[in-house]
Amino acid sequence: GGSAPGGSRGLSRSPSHHSLRAGPSMWCFALMVPGGGEHALLAAQYSNRIGIFACDDYTVFSNDTVPLVAPAASTAMDTGGGGLLTSPIGGSLSVRLGGKWGTAMNTDIFVRVWAAVVKLARFQQHPWTVKADPDTVFVPARLRQLLATEPPGAVYLNNCKYGLHGPIEVLSREAVAVYANRSRACEGFRIDAMDTSHPHDDEDHAFGEDQFLNVCLD
User: Fold this and answer.
1) Please, what sign has the CA dihedral across residues 102, 110, 49, 44?
2) pLDDT score of 69
């Protein structure tokens, strides 16, 4: 697994313990707000090895190093028996609502998350990266079947006719690399995403992280 500051073990599964499964391998991650329902949701998913924990490799990010499950509930395969800890991105996870649809103004938070993704570099070990919200119903086995027929290259899956929607975001390894190279060039989109000073029906400003990622990658 990855290492958090201070030598603590980040929440992830070692690639050396991949299961033999049909379809390409996936590294999956979630962002958890500590101290609330997301913690309980992810702990329950881990105990049943479902959601992101049914992927070949996984990480849970938060704004601090937080125990997800106690050492007794984790496995040596995951973290050497040291318990499951989140990987910290720092900063606040609080957001305000805004824009035409009253969406969470969370782009700045997920810019930090994607920076942590790039720095951790686990995405490089798998053809596909999946970001899933803690309350997303996600069945990795079904996604693997879809990904098996996807062409190679820098692609992401458009999961809605209105554009990429954030509960689940699926990017190829090459697409994550493209984002890493474009992150500075997309600064203007980040500013637009966080700008709530425009009229309420202005769809080019005050939008969420999913639309930011969509316009940045396009």
Assistant:
1) negative
2) 82
Strand partners, 170: 130
From the list 59, 4, 71, the residue with the least C-alpha distance to 32 is 59
Which residues have C-beta within 8 Å of that of residue 170, sequence separation ≥ 6? 128, 129, 130, 143, 147, 156, 157, 159
Model confidence at 101, pLDDT cuts 50, 70, 90, reads confident
Contact 82, 109 (CB under 8 A): no
Contact present, 60 and 11 (Cβ < 8 Å): yes
Residue type, 73: A
- Name the residue with higher pLDDT: 117 or 201: 117
And the tokens for 129? 């990266």
Instruction: Give the amino acid at 151.
Output: P
Residue 6: pLDDT over 50: no
